Amino acid sequence: MKKILLIVLTYVFTSIQAQSSCNEIIETVKLEGYGSTFFSPSSEAVSQVTFYNVNIEYKTYYFAIVKFSSSFSKEYIYQVGSNTKMNYSMNYLTSAGKSFWKFIASYNENLKCAPEFD
Fold first, then answer.
1. Three-state secondary-structure class, residue 93
2. How far is 6 from 66, CA to CA, in rounded Å?
3. Measured between alpha carbons, how far is 31 from 26 in angstroms, rounded to an integer?
């Protein structure tokens, strides 16, 4: 099972263009990983971020699934660094939006599943 997951994630990581592929990554990460969610109900920018760790072939991958306040039902996934969860968790109560821009937004090119911001 892990070998199949590794093949699927490798394919998805290298050639993601369509939103359906992004949704597949989100579903796979949710199924295979363990998540910690940070809610920001009063934020005008980011309403929720869930961080996941996924272990594949003895290697850990880190993801953040973000829901923005403007489109709460839509999820976006970022492949992030190992310390992103800690950094975000220490700052999001002050400003979830600023914490998103400082600690998560820069990872938007890794999976190409993030929205385009002007």
1. coil
2. 23
3. 9
Please give the structure tokens belonging to residue 104.
């998560």
Q: What is d(CA 88, CA 118) in angstroms, rounded to the nearest whole number?
A: 23
Asked whether residue 105 is assigned to any structural domain, the reply reads yes
What digits encode the pLDDT tens for the residues 43-101? 999 999 999 999 989 999 999 999 998 886 899 999 999 999 999 999 999 999 999 99
Q: State which residues form the domain around 74.
A: 2-111
The C-alpha R_g of the chain, in whole angstroms, comes to: 14
**pTM for the predicted model, two decimal places:** 0.81
In a domain, 117, yes or no: no
Of 62, 84, 71, the closest CA to residue 13 belongs to 62
Residue 40 lies inside a defined structural domain of this protein: yes
Q: Pinpoint the alpha helices (H) of the chain.
A: 2-14, 19-32, 84-89, 96-103, 108-111
116, part of any domain: no
Closest CA to 63 of 77, 74, 49, 48: 77
Judge whether 34 and 50 are in contact, CB under 8 Å.
Answer: no
